[in-house]
Amino acid sequence: MKFKFLLLGLISMLALPAMAQEDALKDFPGYVDFGELNSMFGEPSVQIAVGGSLLGFVSALTAREDPEAAELFKRLHGVRVSVFENPAMNKAAVDYVKTISSKLSQQGWESVVTVNSDDEQVRIFMKFNDGNVEGITVMALEEDEAVFVNVIGDLKPDELGKVMDNFDIDMGGHDDDSGNDE
Fold it and tell me: pLDDT at position 181, please?
């Protein structure tokens, strides 16, 4: 019984920094409230929540090898990624993404990519301010996967590819490999 209380206490202590980190990001203009994704799609298969402290640490680690990337990481406030496998791209899921898209448009986000097909729904939004990007949001639904990404920070447009590459996010909408298994 003591073990259960100890385990519960440890889990609670580990969850607090993640919740505090999420709360700290909410004040930035590039933050997107995706709502209760778990209630719509279930438990995520991948969930990444990197805040300013860890990004600062990454910046310090990369400063010597890649000063340009280090400078970029200094200006990021957070990166949030949630991936759900086998979510069933039903009408409710598509409507959920459309609702979030509508809210983003009302909040001054610009829609830069929209894909509406039978097997794929993709939305990419950017929040601009004085020629820089304060946030990027990607929402993608496919038959077997739902992905939600929010990058929060002060980015120059020419740096966007570098940020996405560092977090292994493909914004091109296509795979890089040609399908050959050589």
Answer: 44
